[in-house]
Automatic annotation (TrEMBL):
Keywords for this protein: Aminoacyl-tRNA synthetase, ATP-binding, Cytoplasm, Ligase, Nucleotide-binding, Protein biosynthesis
Residues binding ATP, per UniProt: 209-211, 358, 409-412
Gene from which this protein is expressed: aspS
Region (Aspartate): 187-190
Family (UniProt): Belongs to the class-II aminoacyl-tRNA synthetase family. Type 2 subfamily.
Gene3D superfamilies (UniProt xref): Bira Bifunctional Protein, Domain 2, Nucleic acid-binding proteins
NCBIfam families for the chain: aspS_nondisc (TIGR00458), PRK05159.1 (NF003483)
Lineage, opening ranks: Bacteria, Bacillati, Actinomycetota, Actinomycetes, Kitasatosporales
Official protein name in the record: Aspartate--tRNA ligase
EC number of the protein: 6.1.1.12
Organism per entry: Kitasatospora cineracea
Amino acid sequence: MVRVLVGELPAAVGRTVTVKGWVNTLRLQSKVQFVVVRDHTGMVQVTHRRGGEGDALGELLQGLTVESAVVVTGRVVANPVVKLGGLEIVPERVEVVSAAEPGLPIGPETGPEQRLNWRFLDLRRPERRLVFEVQTTVEQAMREVAAEQGCTELHTPKLMGTASESGAEVFEVGYFERKAYLAQSPQFYKQMAIAGGIDRVFEIGPVFRAEPSFTSRHATEFTGVDVELAWIDGVEDVMSFEERMLRRALELVAERHGEQIERHWGVRVVVPELPFPRLTMAEAVKRLRDAGWDPEGVREDLDPEGERLLSALVERETGHEFVFVTGFPASVRPFYHLRSAGDPAVTESFDLLWKGVEITTGAQREHRYGRLVAQAREKGMDAGPEGPLGRYLDCFRYGMPPHGGFGLGLGRVLMLALGLPSIRDAVFLFRGPNRLEP
Ligand code: AMO
């Protein structure tokens, strides 16, 4: 018997079909037994009227456990009384292909840590799996835009001989007789690709950060979307690339999943207008101070509270959920960010905030060898040919075009798109300082 998906049952009324799935709920009464079976497309009620002596099927259903994997063959019957789609299956045969042990380790009231311990059971809930359907759509849309814009997709190494960017947040791993490091950004490699004549680079890949952060938006391993564009006229080219990419992604998400996201998570997917609002860091700080923002630590960068306040302020004024913050001071940006022509204390860089959370860092890069070396030294880095930056800096010695790019955290985008409380729920298997399992 050919398998029919639950979502296809309305077109199968009157036919005998086979449905394969898990037992979602059981209501076993003396006269009638109700088994709700769930597959990845929906749920259907299987209704068996008990036949007294010799009712083998009734006996089998009596011994069923919730979450067992079953194959049900029976007739699809229209029944307006049934809440699940106004139809039911009257079973002829039920096969238990793999019985679930009685007493599930998680239920609706289970806390987040226990849910993550039993993530495969957690994922059987449709609203939890929705995240990955949305993720598939987001990645598809981003790839399409990247390809249309002439990007070449690369997969840069995740094992590195020297730490990228800065040494602080890097995981060290044993590598035969020496040490290697897990890439905390494809930053240097995507610039190397630009030096290699690949005009526009796109990558979706793993990023590792040894940050002992326990916030709702930090993971030690996450998926990054990285773009690098050559021959740009300015950082504006990078921002307009990114906003077009995000708009397409959210258009497709709204169209395919908007209704389900709203039903399950109570969040309306807003397709953003172009261009996104832009605000310089200097303007942002002034506006935030007027609104009462007074951070304790670094005052030249935005802290999470500043990001939240600023997003709320911009949304109130413009109705827009996104805001690009531009022109960060050089003191809080990496050495490779291009300094502004008019003011070397400021960089041609940006962060993109969405609903109060930073989802992207981007910049035009310094492409002139001498200046790049000077900027690295200014940050106290070893810029010598035999030092950790040697191979990277070589890329700038034989003709490097002006270029810029950005890195976007996919988990953060999904968390915000669905309104999830934490990035833990936005990734398949979360990795954090205290979590390496399952
Ligand atoms: P940055 O370090 O800001 O920039 O990272 C880019 C984006 O990645 C996401 N992100 C994270 N997501 C989950 N857990 C984390 N621990 C975490 N850290 C960062 C955020 C962030 O905006 N090389 C630059 C990018 C560039 O300039 O092209 C970089 O890595 O969404």
